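Please, structure for the following, as tokens.
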Amino acid sequence: MAVREEVFGFFIPSVTLIGIGSAKEIPNKIRALGGKKPLIVTDPGIVGAGILAQVTDLLDASKMKYAVYDKTIPNPTDANVHEGVEVYKKEKCDSLITLGGGSSHDCGKGVGLVVSNGGKIHDFEGIDKSEKPLPPYVAVNTTAGTASEMTRFCIITDLSRKVKMAIVDWRVTPGIAIDDPMLMMGMPPALTAATGMDALTHAVEAYVSTIATPMTDSCAEKAIEIVFKSLRPAVANGQDVEAREAMCFAQYLAGMAFNNASLGHVHAMAHQLGGFYDLPHGECNAILLPHVERFNLPAKVDRFAKMATLMGENINGLSPRAAAEKCLDAIQELSCDVGIPSGLIELGKRYGKDVKAADIPTMTANAQKDACGLTNPRCPTDADVVAIYEAAL
């Protein structure tokens, strides 16, 4: 913590509902916020899995009118946001429900920013650029990873620049967050693994952040502990309700940590892979995490050693440095166990993308401008970032 005059904020939704059956409260909570006709922002995968129908059935039963924008893509774009805005206005909506993982939540947050403040989504890139609150907003989560249902972060791809815009704004924090593990039961193993490793990345980066506090530390520590106990079972058996619910809590705790302590260069660099190649965010984070944290380790040796114990590693008799290295080993072992690709080239092949060393200088320049890197415990040079990307290939 700081030894000079400094004010720390703590941002979180006004109300959060976590647990089996919590999704049944969606109509009541929209009405409680003053909404009468919400726009549901979601994606084709949620529609195909039948999850949208579960939610619209609840709204129909409560006689609530609604409209749907279901074209959000995995790395939501400025085009997605502006299409959603048009639907919101055309259908004369007055509130928002986002349904899905981080992509749907981020797209919906972008829609809310524009309908309330005007302009284009690009106007809000950076920190606290909005001037007016979002419409009444309930975020319904279907993955255990991004925690976007409770954060002030909104990540949108600018198609013209091939860059993910980091929008950090306290006004995009949802009014109510809902995490019902029953909506997550159909998540396939690969998505479970990717979102779970995303949650771990949030907790680790928040724990070594330059603005971590005792409150964020407590959240990050518990999140790390739960991920290491529950992610493997959740990936192995998607119908394991206890593991699913545990991961709900883990990802939410990790969200509480990074929503207030911010993140680091894992996210700054992963955003470029998403913007440049349209690669999935969680897997990019998982691959970069041990490489970035190896760079960070000298600045936070004691913290990495503590994380090793939270991960179940025995550090008795080890030097602080050796104990800290155990943390990195544990991260790589977990990543391997849940099926994360070993490197970025392999990840690219999985999704039909050609990840090339020749693109690293451009991604490095953009990563160095990303707001998430401001709280990284070490300040990497361009050469350092290039070396990390190369090691992760």
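The two ends are 35 Å apart (CA to CA). Residues 214-236 form the longest helix (23 residues).
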